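Bit of a strange request maybe. I'm writing a small parser for structure token strings and I need a real example to test against, not something I typed by hand. Could someone generate the tokens for this chain?
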Amino acid sequence: MQRLKLFLGAVAVSIAPAVVQAAILTNVPMQGGMLMPMVSYSASMGMMMVMMPTDVPQLTPLLVSNPGDSFDPDDPWFNVLDPSRGGAAFSRQYGFMMDDMSDPLPTGTQMWIRKISGPTELQFYRYSGSAPMSFDPIFGTDGTTNALYWDGVMFHPAVAAPPGTNGYTATFEVYLVDATSGQEITNSSSGPLVFNWTDVSDGRPVLSIVQGAGVAVSWPADTSTNWVLESASMVNAANWTVVTNVPTSAGGQQSVLLQQSAPQGFFRMRYLP
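Reply from user aminoacidic:
Good idea to test on real output. This should exercise your parser:
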């Protein structure tokens, strides 16, 4: 049985902006002030400790935070974050920082950070906005390991997700590893750390699917012509294909009809500046 899913089209907000090209950004905005989980080692307890901030960061798409701006196609984050491509909502507010009051780590040990849980569509990247620029998947994104060695230098991973959801939650832990054997040191974990994000819509039209003799994918007929329907076989696909079926209008909706035998697919609306 075929499965068809909607992607990046979960909310209806009638703000489809008329974007005028304003600037090509050379880095990824943080999307707010820094929120720093403070990491320390307790020698008396023999374990890592983390003090979490109380504020909750907001995943925000570029169409909302920087209307009219875009990213350089040559930059490594372009396909994920640019409104003309993935258009993900994102934030770099959460970071990891060593507490000045931390006890020294035991000799011969390393700190590691591990993602324990979180939805697949919540993606994490090791970001560098200076040469050499990087936007490397981490914490299970794109098949990477869910654990990451951390040298204690402050860093802010970029977090990206489809815009306009009810928010996201992921859990992490910080623990020690024997630097020689690579084995985790028993009972050194900080325990689960809960990270939360709210999420903002970019005005992307709502998609709906009705299955009958065929599969109809529909969206509001008053949608700006700046949006185009695309499909892919995987939600994290690097390349999405424009659906070329000619839409029909009825009942305030535009619809394209696909064959019932179509394979599993994901659909999204992509903004065309």
